[in-house]
Amino acid sequence: MEAVPDAGTISTPDDAYLRLRPRMAGLSQEVFVVLALNARNVVIDEIEVARGGLVGVEVHPREVFRPLIRLAAAAAVVAHNHPSGDPRPSDEDLALTHRLIASGELLGVPILDHIVVASAGYTSLCERSGLVR
């Protein structure tokens, strides 16, 4: 688990993408990252929770929420990359987002967005489908 503290504020999906693009775009394998936010949406930590292969990464809600609970995060933005360069979410991405939203509601740490980062840009599941706030 890698953590990189920062004081950036995440107000829009574009803020999350601009923060994560240098780290994630152009990678040859999928990586899943969580931005832990305080009550004012300031990033208190950036955590890589899973690393996969060329076409997928296995992510469990427990791995996403464990560091968030330890940090007493008020909310989170999750993100992963698509090495193919296509930022469109897969059916698996949508299913995982539903699971994480439900888990966050139970734990009191809402997922504010799920960003798919790619070399061709990004997709915010919040903007695209209204799945998250």
Write the topology of this structure.
Blueprint lengths: L1 E2 L9 H12 L6 E7 L5 E9 L9 H10 L4 E7 L9 H17 L3 E8 L2 E4 H5 L4
Parallel strand pairs: 4-5
Antiparallel strand pairs: 1-3, 2-3, 2-4, 5-6
What report would you give on this structure?
Helix 3 links the parallel strand 4 and strand 5 (111-118). The protein has a 6-stranded mixed β-sheet with strand order 1-3-2-4-5-6, sandwiched between helices. The chain has a single domain (2-129), classed as Cytidine Deaminase, domain 2. It is globular and about 35 Å long. It has helices at 13-24, 61-70, 91-107, 125-129, and strands at 2-3, 31-37, 43-51, 75-81, 111-118, 121-124. The chain is built from 4 helices and 6 strands; from the N terminus they run E-H-E-E-H-E-H-E-E-H. The protein is of the alpha+beta class.
CATH topology: Cytidine Deaminase, domain 2
* CATH class (first level) name: Alpha Beta
Strand content: 25-35%
Main sheet overview: 6 strands, mixed
State the helix count.
Answer: 4
User: How many discrete domains?
Assistant: 1
**Beginning-to-end CA distance, first to last residue:** 27 Å
How are the strands ordered across the major sheet?
1-3-2-4-5-6
Q: What's the SSE pattern?
A: EHEEHEHEEH
Q: What do the pLDDT scores average to?
A: 90
* Strands, count: 6
What is the CATH-assigned architecture? 3-Layer(aba) Sandwich
Spans where pLDDT lies below 50 across 5 or more residues: 1-6
**Structural class, from helix and strand content?**
alpha+beta
CATH homologous superfamily classification: Cytidine Deaminase, domain 2
Helix content: 25-40%
Overall, the morphology is globular
